[in-house]
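User: Please predict the structure of the protein below. I'd like the answer in structure-token form so I can feed it into my own downstream comparison script.

Assistant: Understood. Taking the following sequence of 232 residues as input:
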Amino acid sequence: MINKKINSVEAAVAGVTDNMTLMLGGFGLCGIPENAIAELVKLGAKNLTCISNNAGVDDFGLGLLLQQRQIKKMISSYVGENDEFERQMLSGELEVELTPQGTLAEKCRAAQAGFPAFYTPAGYGTEVAEGKESREFNGKMHILEKAYEADFAFVKAWKGDEAGNLIFKGTARNFNPCMCGAAKITVAEVEELVPVGELDPNQIHIPGIFVQRIFQGEKYEKRIEQRTVRPR
């Protein structure tokens, strides 16, 4: 019986060291691997390159790693609501590679599928294309984008089993699925971990072959990045 269950978050992040490249799932604060991020802060690894759609907020998500100056480079699609991210970027303390959102997702998917690179029209004619090969397809110019190379991918799912099969809930199914299997080691944290055979095969979004470690997280805050309400 395949069993990828890890009994603690400490064991789940074991092997992360200075200068590694990490993928982290989520969009805004939706579906971020909260427990893994908190443990990475405790671990204290420095000079990390983090691939994530954004960097959380100042005091939550990847913002916690930025506070501790553990990240040397962010590969993201936008700065978002994180003032510290913006400050470090503008001051030159943090290297930032802004990438079109669809391109970021596809670079993850390419790594997941084992493709070294792909062509996309996104970014052609802008600074995104500087230094990259370009080629015309069907009368439209495209640029060559290389797949990401990462040491660890940390993702968050709603439910999983001990073989690593995952089910995502709602919009938490964002960058998480395409990061599974896109790094040397994929670590999945789930709200509910069940024995093999308890998940409906027709409901599984990511098969366990893409996951090396899985653990059940605790105390999910599920904070809303920006709460908006209607006036009465």
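That's the full token string. The chain is about 20% helix and 25% strand.
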